[in-house]
């Protein structure tokens, strides 16, 4: 018997029949003898519909009221799920973020969890009931007002509750079978990973893999919460995100590479003709940071001695492109650069694997694979367990497939049968 | 400068444009120098849609979860209204029933307010903001779970808040211009009443007038809260429900009759052949009460001496008809009656007026009017300020019109212009 935290996203509870399906799954876990806490998102498109309603009323909704509005979504899904579980003969009670003790800071719309005091959840579980908790929300303790956690908030709620309750596992249910070696829509031969480390999952999430958000993985790593990413449509075992030693009998050899991630959401700004004197690069990134923009990769070209000028390129979220170029243009006189180039037709490929630490030649093999595929590399950055390259956006898919094959990540027919058939 | 509690129902906030219209009205009251607290219902059909969702999930939803579900509706409308008011440059904050200090008993789905501690509302108003409060909901203090107040709950929330805040007036906004001498859909010449006493309003509400629910009027009378029933579509003065002395210059003569109410929602049960011995009537009404059914009018026929048997008829909500007949049938052996007759094709007409206390001949005039109109009277009951008669359902409209005319309640063309034109 274990204590399991299960999290179901909006697509898993999109309508009454989906909710009944999830209820069946929860009831089965309970009947199997486990204690079960369920974190649930708003149904399907509810959140988008509420945002749309707010926009019809005002272009600039106060964020406190926006959070009150949006949290209506989980209120609906959590009570319906509790009813559906109750209908199967298993007692279930639903709780808001506040009732579940999810305490956050005061940043409405993007609040951070600062404490979890789930005494009502513990009591509910101790009495043999299933506790349903609204994801994505908490309470600002100084005002007792509701807050929302922003993007990926429900996953973070689940991991935070699992940490506080010392749950045996946090199951994140989604519409895919787990974490894959690449996006199966681009690489049909991508394989589901049985296990991935926190560090690898962090790099994958930061490099464009959408299955888990970064902050949820950070939280899980900090508190050592084992995450099981799995499909809400099948009973197959998914992917375990954990640093725990493998169970007896499991294959323990660390593969060199966990997977290939890609990201189309970035743009590149090149600051042309920067005087190559100390402090200019620092000034550029100060200006960008003060506009609230996070940058990703940076490349400074070798200075042309004759002119004493250099070019600096960096990547950033394309959604921040306007803010960054405006800030830089405003400061063109004092920085003294010649011009700005903006390019949002780039793609980023990242190769991630904890094993590459001890395996030389990974970069060489990556560059060779891209070269063989005719893909030009525009920028490069590396970490201990990641190599990222920027390419043209229209060659990104081809690049991902080539690299996936070059590192022997493609599944064979036999493996595919094993994954699809037995669940492991 | 006054403290005004305004209540807007679901039809007044049915969509974004309605919400913006209400916001304009609230902002105008605020800009006129008043302190404003707004109680709001769920948007349009939201509550029905949520009930429908619950039914898709389970035929028997646990009431605690049902209340959590339904209170999502006011959460949406209150935050949208706060946003819309904010958009007009007036600060506004929304509060749940719990945050507004609406404390109830534990009867989920039909909770009664046991206390109101609106310190956050007072603080918000003191800081110059408009406070928006979710109607229809409160908190069960022993569990901190949300409760709903049942039918007419938002009106009751408004009156309870007004009482606790010692508001100068509680404005109930609705889709009609006020309280009328009769339902204008049946009596086109019905007049809007400028003023009606709590007692009269109680009798009107109990007799089928739908503009205010009984419990809200009871609450207002107990705490002396002046209610102003008015249209959310016009700025006309509506109807004041109050026992306060009329302001100087007002016409103070008490009219004999306030209005004619009608009710089509009742049914009649006749218990035929009841042994005319002491205790039999008591037993019948014990059985009906133990089935949870409230009865309205009772008539016991004169006993036929030869048989020692009598008939007892009573009226009850038609929705309780099945429960009452089942309970009586079950106890037929011990009560010893011959048979039951059930009739749901009845109508009830009630003539209400505090002035009838001191005016003899009101009954005679009523019966004459009905007789002249060819309407047969099946049952009669009276209170100090009300006479009710049961008729055939299909002669009810004709009866209402005849009585309205007989008591000189019909408006003249001139009066209609005054009401429609100047607002008073």
UniProtKB/TrEMBL annotation, chains A, B:
It is an enzyme of class 2 (transferase). InterPro entries: AceGlu_kinase-like_sf (IPR036393), ACT-like_dom_sf (IPR045865), ACT_Aspartokinase (IPR054352), ACT_dom (IPR002912), AKii-LysC-BS (IPR041740), Asp/Glu/Uridylate_kinase (IPR001048), Asp_kin_monofn (IPR005260), Asp_kinase (IPR001341). It catalyses: L-aspartate + ATP = 4-phospho-L-aspartate + ADP. Coiled coil: none annotated. Its EC number is 2.7.2.4. One of its GO terms (molecular function) is aspartate kinase activity. Residues 269-354 form the ACT domain. Keywords: Amino-acid biosynthesis, ATP-binding, Diaminopimelate biosynthesis, Kinase, Lysine biosynthesis, Nucleotide-binding, Transferase. Pfam families: AA_kinase, ACT_9. Pathway: Amino-acid biosynthesis; L-methionine biosynthesis via de novo pathway; L-homoserine from L-aspartate: step 1/3; Amino-acid biosynthesis; L-lysine biosynthesis via DAP pathway; (S)-tetrahydrodipicolinate from L-aspartate: step 1/4; Amino-acid biosynthesis; L-threonine biosynthesis; L-threonine from L-aspartate: step 1/5. Catalyzes the phosphorylation of the beta-carboxyl group of aspartic acid with ATP to yield 4-phospho-L-aspartate, which is involved in the branched biosynthetic pathway leading to the biosynthesis of amino acids lysine, threonine, isoleucine and methionine. Belongs to the aspartokinase family. This is Aspartokinase. The lineage of its organism: Bacteria, Bacillati, Actinomycetota, Actinomycetes, Micrococcales.
């Amino acid at each position: 018997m274990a204590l399991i935290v299960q999290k179901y996203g909006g697509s898993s509870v999109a309508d009454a029949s989906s909710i009944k399906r999830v209820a069946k799954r929860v009831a089965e876990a309970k009947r199997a003898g486990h204690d079960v806490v369920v974190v649930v998102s708003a149904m399907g498109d509810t959140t988008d519909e509420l945002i749309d309603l707010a926009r019809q009323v005002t272009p600039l909704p106060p964020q406190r009221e926006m959070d009150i509005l949006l949290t209506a979504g989980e209120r609906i899904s959590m009570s319906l799920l509790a009813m559906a579980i109750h209908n199967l003969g298993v007692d279930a009670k639903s709780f808001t973020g506040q009732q579940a003790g999810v305490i956050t800071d005061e940043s409405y719309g993007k609040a951070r969890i600062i404490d979890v005091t789930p005494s009502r959840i513990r009591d509910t579980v101790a009495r043999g009931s299933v506790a349903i908790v609204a994801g994505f929300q908490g309470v600002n303790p100084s005002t007792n007002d509701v807050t929302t956690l922003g993007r990926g908030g429900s996953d973070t709620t689940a991991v935070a509750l699992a940490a506080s309750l010392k749950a045996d596992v946090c199951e994140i249910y989604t519409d895919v079978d787990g974490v894959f070696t690449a996006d199966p829509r681009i690489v049909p031969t991508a394989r589901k990973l049985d296990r991935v480390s926190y560090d690898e999952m962090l790099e994958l999430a930061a490099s464009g893999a959408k299955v888990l958000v970064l902050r949820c993985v950070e939280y899980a790593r900090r508190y050592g919460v084992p995450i099981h990413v799995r499909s809400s449509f099948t009973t197959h075992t998914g992917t375990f995100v954990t640093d725990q030693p493998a169970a007896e009998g499991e294959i323990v050899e660390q593969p060199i590479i966990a997977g290939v991630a890609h990201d189309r959401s970035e743009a590149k700004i090149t600051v042309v003709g920067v005087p190559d004197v100390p402090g200019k690069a620092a000034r550029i990134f100060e200006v960008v940071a003060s506009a609230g923009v996070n940058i990703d990769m940076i490349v400074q070209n070798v200075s042309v001695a004759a002119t004493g000028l250099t070019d600096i390129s960096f990547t950033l979220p394309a959604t921040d492109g306007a803010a960054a170029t405006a800030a830089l243009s405003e400061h063109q006189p004092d920085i003294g650069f010649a011009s700005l180039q903006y390019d949002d037709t780039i793609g980023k490929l990242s190769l991630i694997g904890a094993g590459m630490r001890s395996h030389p030649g990974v970069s060489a093999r990556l560059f060779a694979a891209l070269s063989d595929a005719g893909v030009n590399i525009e920028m490069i950055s590396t970490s201990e367990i990641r190599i990222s390259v920027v390419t043209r956006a229209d060659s990104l898919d081809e690049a991902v497939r080539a690299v996936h094959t070059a590192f022997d990540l493609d599944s064979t027919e036999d493996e595919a049968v094993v994954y699809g058939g037995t669940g492991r």
